[in-house]
Specification:
- The chain is α/β, with parallel strands linked by helices.
- The chain folds into three domains: 3-126, PAS domain (Beta-Lactamase, 2-Layer Sandwich); 148-215 and 397-529, Rossmann fold (3-Layer(aba) Sandwich); 220-396, Histidine kinase-like ATPase, C-terminal domain (Heat Shock Protein 90).
- The protein contains 15 helices and 18 strands.
- It has helices at residues 3-14, 36-42, 56-59, 75-82, 128-181, 185-212, 224-235, 265-282, 350-360, 386-396, 420-432, 443-453, 471-481, 497-504, 517-527, and strands at residues 20-25, 31-34, 61-62, 86-94, 100-111, 117-126, 220-223, 243-248, 260-263, 287-298, 309-318, 364-371, 374-382, 412-416, 436-440, 457-463, 487-491, 509-512.
- The protein has a six-stranded antiparallel sheet with strand order 2-1-6-5-4-3, with helices on both faces.
């Protein structure tokens, strides 16, 4: 059958097909026919001037990475070169209405009775849904892989932090004891320098662990300004120097009173970090990010506040281009992101994480203001009660000298810790505070010592991570026979899930490592009955 008959039959049937059809002359590429489905898929009639070597711009043909498609690689050219059917599935049409249509093209040559190629017939299938589904699958696998990597990082960081915090506990206790007894001013200043350097190391460990961790910790009294300052100091070193970060913290104002909340330090640090990163990405080139804290009463529903009351407020304001009004309601959705281009693409989890954390803290997160001059993000966390704030003051009070520390009256304290340096420094410090001390190097021996002296023991200072019998097992063993014996949990792993469980089961207090003499003295004084 000749080429003309091929063309006639194709034209008769093609307009009813659900597949987009294009028929072009050889060698010019001038369009002979398109069916209804073709015009629906591409969104236009065949444009004037579209022909061989001029297909790409008129039809809006692009590669999958957004570049104009090479003219010499178009399906028409491939058929001319191969003189056989070809399949091309990497064409993306940038329609004039803004849509992106991914196409799979089946193109074949038509010949006349002399074997001369007269036309190229192309059939287009819209594979946009297939491409998007495959992309979503790949992104889901990548997110899962990232989550697994982050979990591994968190586990590694937790183990490292546990070991470092044990060492830092020893340094804090020894430096504190030396400073109390030192009468030489120059030597006392040198010991103070050791103590200050140790504090810097403690802050670094907490920052790194807070950002690597994915597990929740205790809800403890926290000064919001301290969390904000630690994150700002860390991020300021990594942001583009053209972006200025300025702080306006409540504790730096005339009142000098920083808002205190009950919360999870590592999770709140994530909130601050994610808001800062979001603000940084909104600023192009030079710009300013302002981070402020204050306390304020909100009505229920105001800025999204779940209930009326007093809140500690964190605001992060940037001088970026603002958020499009059409997407304002979606910014806290998981996996929703506008960062789809450039070397670093967004995961859509930053603001979703912020929203999830503040919800767990009974607070709120909202876009307080957004315009072409910038965006103001606002987070509110309920203020701690007076009783809870008192716990923070006692836990963070600096050393006041030996005479000013609360002391015991010979009560017996059992220290159970597998680290020999921690065990020795803690027991020596406790003795210097007026208590008698028993020690055990693991949980099993700790239970033996407790059983032998249970009637005299006034308090157990219990490490959580130990061989033989861990802190959880020893805690429950003691509780079964002596439910009223005060137990203080101590751990160098800031997100120890077991410690949180035992606090719910009646553990009197949690003394995180590293602790200093003042914190240890205050804890013993509060708990010993």
């Amino acid at each position: 059958m000749g080429g003309a008959s091929h063309v006639s039959q194709a034209i008769l049937a093609a307009d009813e097909l659900p597949v987009a059809i294009w028929l072009g002359e050889v060698p010019s590429g001038a369009v002979v026919y398109t069916n209804r489905a073709f015009r629906e898929v591409l969104g236009i009639e065949p444009p004037e001037g579209a022909a061989r070597n001029a297909f790409v711009e008129p039809y809006g043909v692009h590669t999958t990475d957004g570049r104009p498609y090479p003219e010499d690689a178009m399906p028409f050219e491939r058929v001319l070169a191969a003189r056989a059917q070809v399949v091309v599935d990497d064409l993306v049409i940038h329609r004039r209405d803004g849509r992106r249509v991914h196409l799979r093209v089946f193109a074949k040559p038509l010949f006349d009775e002399h074997g001369t190629m007269t036309h190229v017939l192309e059939a287009f299938t819209d594979i946009t849904r297939e491409i998007e589904a495959d992309r979503a699958r790949v992104e889901g696998e990548q997110r899962l892989a990232r989550a697994h990597r982050l979990e591994s990082i968190g586990q590694l960081a937790a183990g490292i932090a546990h070991d470092f915090n044990n060492l830092l506990t020893v340094t804090k206790l020894v430096a504190g004891s030396l400073r109390q007894s030192e009468r030489d001013r120059q030597r006392a200043e040198m010991i103070g320098q050791i103590d200050a350097v140790t504090d810097s190391a403690i802050a670094l460990v907490k920052n790194l662990l807070g950002f690597a961790s994915r597990r929740r910790t205790f809800s403890v009294a926290l000064a919001l300004d301290e969390v904000v300052s630690s994150v700002v100091s860390l991020t300021a070193r990594t942001f583009d120097r053209r972006v200025v970060i300025r702080t306006e913290l409540a504790g730096d104002g005339a009142s000098g009173s920083a808002p205190v909340v009950m919360g999870d330090a590592s999770e709140l640090a994530q909130v601050v970090m994610n808001l800062l990163v979001n603000a940084r990405d909104a600023v192009t080139g030079e710009g300013t990010i302002i981070v402020r804290t204050y306390a304020r009463a909100f009505e229920a529903g105001e800025s999204g506040a779940p209930a009326a009351g007093a809140y500690a407020v964190l605001e992060v304001e940037d001088t970026g281009a603002g958020i499009e009004p059409s997407i304002l309601e979606r910014v806290f959705e998981p996996y929703f992101t506008t960062k789809t281009f450039g070397p670093v693409k967004g995961t859509g989890l930053g603001l979703a994480t912020v929203h999830g954390v503040v919800q767990r803290h009974a607070g709120f997160a909202a876009v307080a203001r957004s315009s072409a001059e910038g965006t103001l993000m606002r987070v509110g966390i309920p203020l701690a009660s007076a009783t809870e704030r008192a716990g923070l003051v006692a836990a963070s009070a600096p050393g006041r000298g030996e005479a000013g520390l609360p002391r015991g009256a010979g009560e017996l304290v059992l220290v159970v810790d597998d680290e020999p340096f921690v065990r020795a420094s803690a027991s020596e410090t406790i003795r210097s505070l007026g208590y008698d001390v028993l020690v055990a190097e693991d949980g099993k021996k700790g239970l033996d010592v407790f059983t032998a002296h249970s009637e005299r023991i006034a308090l157990v200072l219990l490490d959580m991570v130990m061989p033989e019998m861990n802190g959880k097992e020893l805690f429950r063993a003691i509780r079964r026979t002596h439910p009223n014996t005060p137990i203080v949990l101590s751990t160098g792993c800031i997100d120890d899930r077991d410690a949180r469980e035992l606090a719910a089961e009646g553990a009197e207090e949690w003394l995180p490592k590293p602790y200093d003499v003042a914190q240890l003295a205050a804890t013993l004084s509060r708990v010993v009955r």
